[in-house]
C-alpha cells in the first residue's frame, strides 16, 4: 500500500505488550484512529469461505475438527467437483462477496490430479472477478508459482499460535514449516493471509509473540485473520473456556496498530458474539469477515449470509468491492 515508509518491521515484545495491555478504551481509540488513517472505516471486506475438501486430515492440530485422529461429528468429503465450486463462487459473488476462499483439509499440497483440479478452480473463480484465495496446507515455491500463474490472489497460512507454544498445539509439523510456506508464497508474488487463533490456552505473551512474528516479517501479511477458538466436540481443546470478547478486541486492536495497512479479519468465533460485540471488533479496526453458506464456516457454524448483511446495514458498513487484481493481466 501507499505510505509504506510508515510501516514498521522492528517491533519489540515490550512495545507490543504495552499496546496490548493499555487501558481498553485507550487501546480501542488508538486502533480506531489508525484504522481511519489507513482504511475507509465504512467498508468491510466480505469473504466467502468454502470447504472444498473436508475432514480426514493427517495432522494433529488440537483445535481442529477435521483431523482424522479425533472423533468428531464432521462428515468427510472428498474434493468437490469444479462445477460445484464454481456454482458456490457464483452465489458468493451474487450475495456481495469480493473474495472467495477455498479451504482443503490437507497437510500439504501434492503434485497430483487433485492439485490440477485446484488449478482449474482458481482459473475459473479468477475469471469471475473476485479475489481468489486458497488454504491448502504446506506448499513448495513451485506449487505457489503454479497457483499464482493460474490467477490466485492470496494464500492463507496461519501461524495459529506463538513459536513458543506451537509444540503444545501441533506435533505433526513445526512452526518453521509454517514460516517456510509463507516465504514460498511471498516468493511466488502472491499476497499473504496469515494470522492465528486465540483461546488455545496460550498466555498473553504468546499472543504478543505471534503478533510480533507477523509484524516483523519483511512485508506484513496483507490479510491477518484473528480467530477465536471454535470449540469442536471430540478435539483435545473441546472443554476450554469461551474466549473473552475483550481479549478478541485487544488482539484485533493490537494487530491494527502494528500492521496498519493490513486487512484485519474477524474470523472464527463470530457465531458466539452478539452484534454489539462484533461492533466493538469493527471499532477496534477489524475490516473483514468470513461469510459462508449453510450457516457454516468450514465445519463449525457461522452467522448466515442474510444476518451478516443485516448487521452490516445496522452498523452502516458497506461490503467492499474487489481490489484491483494485480494478477488479472499476468498472462
Ligand atoms: N489445512 C490447512 C492448514 O491448516 O493450513 C488449511 C485449512 S485450516 C482449517 C485453516 C485455518 O483454520 C487454521 O490454520 C486455523 O487457524 C483455522 N482453524 C481451524 N480450526 C479452527 C477452530 N476450531 N477454531 C478456530 N480456528 C480454526
Ligand atoms: C482462518 O483464519 N479462519 C478460517 C480460514 N482461515 C480457513 C477457518 C476457521 C475455521 C473455524 C473452524 C471450522 O469450522 O473448521
Ligand atoms: Fe489439518 Fe488444517 Fe485442521 Fe490442521 S488445521 S488438522 S492441517 S485441516
Walk me through what this model shows:
- The protein is α/β, with parallel strands linked by helices.
- The protein has helices at 13-21, 24-38, 82-94, 113-126, 141-150, 166-169, 175-187, 204-215, 245-258, 275-283, 305-315, and strands at residues 43-53, 99-104, 131-135, 154-156, 191-193, 196-198, 223-228, 263-266, 288-291, 318-319.
- It has one domain (23-318): TIM Barrel (Alpha-Beta Barrel).
- The protein is built from eleven helices and ten strands.
- Strands 1, 2, 3, 4, 5, 6, 7, 8, 9 and 10 form a ten-stranded parallel sheet that branches.
- Strand 7 (223-228), helix 9 (245-258) and strand 8 form a beta-alpha-beta unit.
- The chain is globular.
- Residues 49, 65, 103, 135, 156, 158, 195, 225, 227, 230, 267-268, 297-300 line the site of 6-(5-methyl-2-OXO-imidazolidin-4-yl)-hexanoic acid.
List the helices and strands and how they pair.
Elements: H1 13-21, H2 24-38, E1 43-53, H3 82-94, E2 99-104, H4 113-126, E3 131-135, H5 141-150, E4 154-156, H6 166-169, H7 175-187, E5 191-193, E6 196-198, H8 204-215, E7 223-228, H9 245-258, E8 263-266, H10 275-283, E9 288-291, H11 305-315, E10 318-319
Parallel strand pairs: 1-2, 1-9, 1-10, 2-3, 3-4, 4-5, 6-7, 7-8, 8-9
Helix pairs in contact: 1-8, 1-9, 2-9, 3-4, 5-7
The protein binds S-adenosylmethionine, 6-(5-methyl-2-OXO-imidazolidin-4-yl)-hexanoic acid and iron/sulfur cluster.
Amino acid at each position: 500500500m501507499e505510505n509504506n515508509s510508515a510501516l514498521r518491521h522492528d517491533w519489540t515484545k515490550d512495545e507490543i505488550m504495552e499496546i496490548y495491555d493499555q487501558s481498553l478504551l485507550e487501546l480501542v481509540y488508538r486502533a480506531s484512529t489508525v484504522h481511519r488513517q489507513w482504511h475507509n472505516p465504512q467498508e468491510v471486506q466480505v469473504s466467502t469461505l468454502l470447504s472444498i475438501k473436508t475432514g480426514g486430515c493427517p495432522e494433529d492440530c488440537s483445535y481442529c475438527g477435521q483431523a482424522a485422529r479425533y472423533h468428531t461429528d464432521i462428515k468427510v468429503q472428498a474434493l468437490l467437483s469444479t462445477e460445484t465450486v464454481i456454482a458456490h463462487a457464483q452465489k458468493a459473488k451474487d450475495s456481495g462477496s469480493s473474495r472467495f476462499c477455498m479451504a482443503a483439509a490437507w497437510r500439504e499440497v501434492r503434485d497430483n490430479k487433485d492439485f490440477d483440479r485446484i488449478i482449474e478452480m482458481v482459473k475459473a473463480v479468477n475469471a469471475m472477478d473476485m479475489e481468489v484465495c486458497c488454504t491448502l496446507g504446506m506448499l513448495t515455491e513451485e506449487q505457489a508459482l503454479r497457483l499464482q500463474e493460474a490467477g490466485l490472489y492470496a494464500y492463507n497460512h496461519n501461524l495459529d499460535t506463538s513459536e513458543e507454544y506451537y509444540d503444545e498445539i501441533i506435533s505433526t509439523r513445526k512452526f518453521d514449516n509454517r514460516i517456510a510456506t509463507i516465504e514460498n508464497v511471498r516468493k511466488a508474488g502472491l499476497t499473504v493471509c496469515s494470522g492465528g487463533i486465540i483461546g488455545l490456552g496460550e498466555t498473553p505473551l504468546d499472543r504478543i509473540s505471534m503478533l510480533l512474528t507477523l509484524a516483523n516479517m519483511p512485508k506484513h501479511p496483507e490479510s491477518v485473520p484473528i480467530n477465536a477458538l471454535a470449540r469442536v466436540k471430540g478435539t483435545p481443546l473441546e472443554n476450554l473456556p469461551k474466549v473473552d470478547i475483550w481479549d478478541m478486541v485487544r488482539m484485533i486492536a493490537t494487530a491494527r496498530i502494528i500492521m496498519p495497512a493490513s486487512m484485519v479479519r474477524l474470523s472464527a468465533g463470530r457465531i458466539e458474539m452478539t452484534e454489539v460485540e462484533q461492533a466493538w471488533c469493527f471499532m477496534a479496526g477489524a475490516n473483514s469477515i468470513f461469510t459462508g453458506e449453510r450457516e457454516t464456516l468450514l465445519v463449525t457454524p457461522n452467522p448466515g449470509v442474510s444476518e451478516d448483511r443485516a448487521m452490516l446495514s445496522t452498523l452502516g458498513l458497506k461490503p467492499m468491492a474487489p481490489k484491483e487484481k494485480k494478477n488479472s493481466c499476468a498472462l
